[in-house]
């Protein structure tokens, strides 16, 4: 059996991925969906897909099956906003943000503005969590102190009980039975 590289008529998934500039899994998915015709062939290492080179060349010349979105119509989410929505109509009068935490995604938005919109709420959240952690740490320290005091009281009570048991056992049984302390 001749290999793919020898014939030149068919290519493997790896070769097709390299020619198309995509990952091999993308080629596999396109084969499964029927966008790229392929057939299974037997190789010395088992079954493999063989893709006709003509179909790969057609795929290179044809536009992508899904058109790319127009950047001016992109609507996305920016963290920190009340609703997080970003509208393409924002920022028309030179204003970048609307004050409610939402930003337009366009070329006029600087990276600094986006980073500020992301970092500001995260900083506030971090500060709140640090305060909560400090309060929990103080409460834990108080509970540990109370636990230590309770442990000391328990040990003292156990020592008293042991001393009374020893004192009671030191007398003979007949004295304990017949003679009682008034």
Structural key phrases:
182 residues, mainly alpha, Multidrug-efflux Transporter Regulator, Chain: A, Domain 2, 3 domains, three-stranded antiparallel sheet, 53% helix, elongated, disordered N terminus
Outline the structure in words:
With 182 residues, the chain is mainly alpha-helical. The chain folds into three domains: 7-61, Multidrug-efflux Transporter Regulator, Chain: A, Domain 2, CATH 1.10.1660.10; 69-109, no CATH class; 125-182. 53% of the residues lie in helices and 8% in strands. The protein contains six helices and three strands, in the order H-E-H-H-E-E-H-H-H. The protein has helices spanning 4-7, 13-20, 24-33, 53-61, 111-169, 173-178, and strands at residues 10-11, 39-43, 46-52. Strands 1-3-2 form a three-stranded antiparallel beta sheet. The N and C termini lie far apart (112 Å).
Query: What is the share of helical residues?
Result: 40-55%
Shape: elongated
What is the arithmetic mean of pLDDT?
A: 76
Spatial arrangement of strands, main beta sheet: 1-3-2
Given helix and strand content, the structural type is mainly alpha
How do you describe this structure in short?
This protein is mostly helical and 182 residues long. 53% of the residues lie in helices and 8% in strands.
Architecture blueprint of SSEs:
Layout: H1 4-7, E1 10-11, H2 13-20, H3 24-33, E2 39-43, E3 46-52, H4 53-61, H5 111-169, H6 173-178
Antiparallel strand pairs: 1-3, 2-3
Helix pairs in contact: 2-3
